[in-house]
Amino acid sequence: MNLEQKLQRLSDAFGVAGFEDEVRGVLQEMAAPYADACETDPLGNLICSRGSGDPVMLDAHMDEVGFMVRWIEKDGFLRLTALGGWDNRILMAHRVTILTRSGEKVHGVIGSTPPHILSPAEQEKVVPLEDLFVDIGARSRDEAEAFGVHIGDPATIHYPFLRLREGYVTGKAFDNRAGCLVAAEALRLLAQERLPYKLVVCFSVHEEGGLRGAKVAAYRIAPKLALALEGTIGADMPGVPEAKQPVRLGKGPAITLADRSITVRPRLARFLERIADENGIPYQYKLPAYGSTDAGAIHLERGGILAGVVSVPCRYIHSPVSTLYLADLEATIKLVVAFLRRAGEFL
Ligand code: CO
After folding, report:
1. 134-135 and 105-110 strand pairing
2. Which of 84, 185, 254, 320 is a plausible cystine mate for 172, CB 3.0–4.6 Å?
3. SS3 category, 70
4. Largest interatomic CA distance in the chain
């Protein structure tokens, strides 16, 4: 499987925050052959390790933003609540996939009131998630339940992976399956090398809306050094001034100096820059201080953990149509591999 095919498999896997089983299965398959051990902790984090010595942690959250069924109306329509940060403006008129308790998937559409019967003022209005409804073709609550749908079932807007053109792809969950793939590839590419530390790759649960999995994983692993991997906010697009573009596509991996959850220790940020320069890898800074990352939770664990963030630039994250350049993904993998070859200098 090439890199594009692996990204496709990961992005298409179901993995709404708190319901990561399917994507964890895919990652276990990808990582286990290159790890001494893989275990799943009580929250669902998949922790794969290799070698011995002080732990160095790579973190990539495997969850994606999604929804949970909040209510089933008498006439069979579903109401949703958000798991993670959505933008109300983009929710209407998409297809959703609901994962039922039995593991079956039920499909539906987020319905919209026909414009013909709306006033001009109503047509201008953004409808909040609370007022939206999902149509699964059920004619009653009983019928919806007979389809296997329960209150509490997770749902996602499912857009299958698609190549827009050679090297440029779109999918529903590049935040953060791109980061997951960087972590899995780093583990694979370093499989034949002896590192002077224990490499621990954590595919974390429930980053969206709380940085939850990484917090307990960092406590458990107690790393000397940690790097969180992300698919982050590409905003090089019409209408956004350069000074407000957190990262840009085609410019290589983004090194975080500060986001809303962490200010990276300068010696670690400089080290990442140096590694990139020495290896001829293009890089950019993620402009401060947009977004939060697992590094925010990790660096506050135990007595404090030295942590940084490297990201693959992705446009339209937290929407079902994120995009990325495979060249940026490849360059990010290169940077992380080069970093891990030298990470022993921090121990
Ligand atoms: Co993310």
Report:
1. antiparallel
2. 320
3. strand
4. 68
Three-class DSSP category at 61: strand
Domains of the chain: 3-64+172-346 (3.40.630.10), 66-157 (2.40.30.40)
Question: What is the token pair recorded at 24?
Answer: 């964890």
Across the chain, mean pLDDT equals 97
The alpha carbons of the chain give a radius of gyration, in whole angstroms, of 21
Q: Identify which of 333, 323, 343, 344 has the alpha carbon closest to the alpha carbon of residue 162.
A: 323
- Residue 286: pLDDT band by 50, 70, 90 thresholds? very high
In single-letter form, the type of residue at position 67 comes to: F
Residues marked as catalytic = 207
Q: Where are the alpha helices (DSSP H) in 169-265?
A: 174-189, 212-221
- What is the amino acid identity at position 329? L
How close is the Cα of 60 to the center of ligand 1, in Å?
8
Count CB atoms within 10 A of the CB of residue 209. Answer: 15
CA of 83 to the centre of ligand 1 (A): 13
- State yes or no: pLDDT of 209 exceeds 90: no
Q: At what angle do helices 21-31 and 174-189 cross, to 10 degrees?
A: 20
Is the distance from CB of 117 to CB of 104 less than 8 angstroms?
Answer: no
Instruction: Over range 182-209, report the average pLDDT.
Output: 97
